[in-house]
Amino acid sequence: MPFSPRRFILAISSLPSQPLLYSPLFRHMPTLVAMELPSSSHRQLIYPRPYQVNIWAFSISKTTVIAQTIFLQLSLTQYSSEFQDINDNHVGIDINGLKSSQSHTAGYYNDKSGSFQNLTLMSRKKMQAWVEYDSQETRIDVTLSPIGMSKPSKPLLSYEFNLSTVLINNSMYVGFSSSTGTVRTSHYILGWSFKLNGVAPSIDLSKLPKSRFKYAELREDWEVEFGPHRFTYKDLYQATNGFKEKELLGTGGFGRVYRGVLPVSKLEVAVKKVSHESRDGTKQFIAEVVSIGQLRHRNLVQLLGYCRRKKELLLVYDYMPNGSLDKYLYSQEKPALNWTQRLNIIKGVASSLLYLHEDSEQVVIHRDVKASNVLLDSELNGRLGDFGLARLYDHGTDPQTSHVVGTMGYLSPELVRSGKATPLTDVFAFGAFILEVVCARRPIESGAQGDQIILVDLVLQHWQSGLLPDIADPRLGECYELEELEMVLKLGLLCSHPVPTARPSMRQVMQYLDGDAPLPELSTTCMSFNMLGMLQNGLDSYVMPYLTTTTSFSSILSGR
């Protein structure tokens, strides 16, 4: 959530602390700090452990109080029509109420150029302020600046008001108060210095707390537009019980995933912590995260939002109670899925890819389709998740070349060669996924002699030998329709073809799976390729001959 303060107040009064805390004037502003200071007091405080991200640092000097029935308030405020504020980013001096007697847009005057420099109160950047009263001039001066800058010589705003009538009092009360209206936020005083009848000592900025605390986050100005999709780190920390091991759902190459329950909504979520080393491309990535969060399909794991902290990016998803599909394929602790369940999962993932490629507002390339990224809901429906590698581009435009990312065995030859991800590179990965689900074997496995076994080659060999059903997971038994099983395996091979134009689109895949169109007549001759050889000896020598072969791949796909 972006920082959106409604009103932040430094209140000074000669009244006892009880009225300061509970006066009707403060009905909008619960007081955070109130303390009694003798008239000759000097006080300096630095708070070592603020509760969350640090927002403000105040140095208050030569400040005094007003009459017993008067409150002097310095407010740093966003817009409120109720109090006739000048704009949504200003500093005001309030007397006996919340309407400012004098106000000015937040900022400071540069000593060298004399020009006014804006400061954004909702930027979550640390700032410092000086509030001073000159008894001879009967003038209150307020000055604001970024943290670390010397006090500007010209104050931000001044207001003439006689405070001398209360100087005879033996004590005074100073308090800090804040209000957010309908917007939840937090305000923090990192340190402050106070003195009567003299200049308050400067605050040692090196002793102020740093942003290294339990709930500290990384935020930048440009993230404001993505605010509704951002979670606070505190909420995610509490949801996952501090990211305890007992909440760990799984670990992958791109991060660890934890189960959590959001503290307010009680919604069950999955929180993925991803390494976030560089700022380069961060804005584009967050924009894509938000865009992906707007996707809606029954076979997609809903991406709810994100949070950034230090070198971590946290992605928040709907929680899927049955976990990832790969556990049902490879773990002995999970029951074996029957054929109907597996086919339903394959169809569900195919439907989600069709939506991403053709029916969403932009083309979405998932780039990491595999069993471990397919999650199962309470009814064992397959939902495609983990959009950490996804790329988006407008329909009718060409995708941009990028770094090759993904998992070996699911990467198409042209993607490895050119670095350009397209819908057909997702189709290739989907072909590997089909074979993985039917055979319960990974696309690349290590043999007994340390050699590599490539699943697509193995399936092709069984087909050539007339033993195609034998490659299926033995746990299926004979509880399947033979023609349906063979059709799905052949479709997996067709999607895994090394030549992109030989692969079907996801719309065609759905037609084949739903029985709305017959799978083209395929022969082992036109499907002959050696994926292991491609991996071992390079791709170009294998891909190029297929581009000049006399076989018409358009005919293969059309069935003509």
Automatic annotation (TrEMBL):
Its EC number is 2.7.11.1. GO terms for cellular component: plasma membrane. ATP binds at residue 273. PROSITE patterns: PROTEIN_KINASE_ATP (PS00107), PROTEIN_KINASE_DOM (PS50011), PROTEIN_KINASE_ST (PS00108). It catalyses: L-threonyl-[protein] + ATP = O-phospho-L-threonyl-[protein] + ADP + H(+); L-seryl-[protein] + ATP = O-phospho-L-seryl-[protein] + ADP + H(+). Residues 243-522 form the Protein kinase domain. The keyword GTP-binding does not apply. SMART domains: S_TKc. Keywords: ATP-binding, Cell membrane, Glycoprotein, Kinase, Lectin, Membrane, Nucleotide-binding, Receptor, Serine/threonine-protein kinase, Signal, Transferase, Transmembrane, Transmembrane helix. SUPFAM superfamilies: Concanavalin A-like lectins/glucanases, Protein kinase-like (PK-like). It is found in: Cell membrane; Membrane. The keyword Cytoplasm does not apply. One of its GO terms (biological process) is negative regulation of response to salt stress. It is an enzyme of class 2 (transferase). In the N-terminal section; belongs to the leguminous lectin family. This is non-specific serine/threonine protein kinase. It comes from Rhynchospora breviuscula.
